[in-house]
Amino acid sequence: MSSNTTVRTTDLCDDHPDAVAVADPIFRDYGGARLFHGPIATVKVHEDNVLVRKALEEPGQGRVLVVDGGGSLRCALLGDNLAAIGHQNGWAGLVVYGCVRDAEAIGRIPIGVKALATHPRKSNKKGAGDRDVPVTFAGITYVPGGFVYADHDGIVFAHKALV
Asked: Cα(123)–Cα(139) distance, rounded to whole angstroms?
């Protein structure tokens, strides 16, 4: 699925009301691409972005990386360097339940980024966390292999592709 295809969350909610879960409206847009979607991969970390980097260094193949940072507002899990790596490797976007930094620069990179807030402090680099496990935040359990659709109106999750 291409992140260039126009897929609106409002249309998905109207056309597939029983197939989508809508995220609580707690996220802000930071990436240069405001509409993005794709199959998801997940990471679960706490104030440590080593697994985020490892995931983004892999071929993204149009996927969306869903990062469960526990909602921490004490450091950033994504900056412009990692966003650029994700874009270069074909990731459609990221949903970060935590903070980002280098927001102005991330806004110039054509990748979707939704996060809670910005924070100037970088994260730890210990490599702790889990990959490709179900993660729950913002009222949704995101399951690896499911699909995320994101735009100006919010984020929806579906267990299978809807378009």
From this structure: 25
Calpha distance 75→72 (Å, rounded): 7
Model's pTM, two decimal places? 0.96
What is the CA 4 to chain-centroid distance, rounded? Answer: 16
- Interval 28-41: pLDDT, tens: 999 999 999 999 99
Query: CA 59, 83, 155, 73: dihedral to nearest 10 degrees?
Result: 130
Cβ atoms of 34 and 152 closer than 8 Å: yes
Instruction: Read off the tokens for 139.
Output: 């009222």
Half-sphere exposure at residue 7, Cβ-oriented, CA atoms within 13 angstroms:
22
CA distances from 119 to 13, 24, 72, 141 (A): 32, 21, 10, 25
pLDDT at 83 over 60: yes
Res. 140: pLDDT tops 90: yes
| Six token digits for residue 116 | 């809670």
